[in-house]
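TEACHING EXERCISE
Course module: macromolecular assemblies
Task: Read the component lines below, then compare them to the predicted structure of the full complex.
Student: A.B.
Group: 4
Components provided:
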Amino acid sequence: MDALSPLRHEVQDLIELSEPRERVGFYRYGLGIFLLLILVKAYAATQWPEYRALVEGLASVAILAMISVLMFASWRVVRAARREQQSIQSIEELMQLRRWPEALTQAEGLLSEPTRGPATRVTALLYLSSILARYRRHHDAIVIQEAMLDEGQIDPGTAFGVKLGRAMSMLQEDRLVDADRAISELRRDAGGDESAGLGLVLMYRDVKTGHSTEALDLFDKLKTSFSRQLGHRSADAHALAAVAADALGFEDDAHRHYRNATLLGSETELHRRYSEVARLAGKYPAETRPGGAAPEALDANLAPTLQSPGVKS
Amino acid sequence: MTPANPIPRFRRDLTFSSIIQSGLFVAAFVAMLLSVMPGGAIVGNLLFAGIVVAWLALSYRSAKSSRINADSPGLIAAGRFREAEQRIEGVVGSFGLFRNVKLVGLHHLALLRHAEKRFHDSAALCQLILRQRLGGVKGLAKPTRLILADSAMEMGDVRGAYDAIASLYRERLSLTEALTLLNVQSDYLMRIGAWDQLFDLIERKASLAELMPPTAAARTQAMLALAARRLGREDWANWLRKRVELLVDPNELIAQRPMLAELWTPAPQADLPAGNA
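Instructor-supplied answer key:
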């Protein structure tokens, strides 16, 4: 298991610190001041015609100054929003490239001060909860997920994803009663839709509670959905199926599922995610990748891969 | 709904917004002149204030369109095409002062048409965007080129795909863009039979393919497997083929790219599909 570099802040602090600051509606003030200046200018020009040139000059300077201030303020707002967006994109990429320590540092940095908008904050919190879950800090992940759901600022699709993460973390923490309640909520939200994510949570609950036959039935039922919706992450479902088959003494099936799991995903990563799968290590051989195991973290520099194809035809 | 061909409308709106912008500048200049002329101060100032208010109102409208724009990619990714179409219609089909907002809307429409597999429409929209002066939205160029390249490949236009992606090799790409490029590039290399180039750096390519959405991941790995087989690297060919079988139904891939059928032709000592072993 990786040693997690300590967070400089408590998770609860990050949730509070990242709340967007109340915006000053300086555009409205600017428009008001501008109209006022125009009126004052017109009034002064008619009331004191002898100072007309002076009034015109002063008003013009004031208007120009105000326009410059507004333009500078807009430029700063746009620049800050762009930086924040770039930061979110960078965290997402680091997570995909499995560069977890850097992703954690950036997510913490972003959340340790007020974000510019609720959407950025929600995304950053979502990423932080995933990173913490990856480091098996499930308690902290749950704190974030609960806060996001309580605040109610997320759309139904995102809320479903957060609830899935929360249910999984609860199972990892052995909070089975809470997990069961969270799963009921997920079932209600899913309605009639077949969700591979929910299927994975249900399989894990069955594996945790010793309902291995149910876990295998669920795997067979959702096999296609797992691969279509989860892609390479369907390795998790194969790995859990291997645990269930092993518990029932179906060693050939367990072997096949374990091989498929390690064909799709890294064996080390699967062991890190599920302690139940880690217990199968050595019992069943993993599928070997030609050229040796894949690197733990992927290289962000993609240039060598993306060389010009040239034209043959 | 978005008109069948939004391109003429886009061109018309662009011309119209240029005229309005120029008109507002001219009117502002006239208002300033009036305000310093004897007896024209009040009229000039009021006219100037009116222009500023009109400008702000149109800017507000554009800002609203920008917000609507922001939701479209998420809806397209979630397969909610009808909702995405409605939102895009709100941007592309209505008048806006700023061309950048329209260009982003048009880019989303190209993305939507690509997701709907209307590749001719998607390619036409991409070409239109790339012909524009992108200015403040120059970041659109890369994803638009990628959509164009993929649409071209889907239409069997290998040369068009090459032209679209050739310039991207000099650019710094985001991870998502790089993955899309890898997918298109693999397809292109397979079509032209550049097996050595396709197999080159296979370890890294296989790892990166894992990060793609399931269908793209399967397709890219199937193409890599074909290159491995053509080069006699059965270790890689079998490993990648078994992964593909766990991700998608091979028949679906073969229907899209018939060349890939070769991976499932009987070969000496070929393994059984992983899922059925």
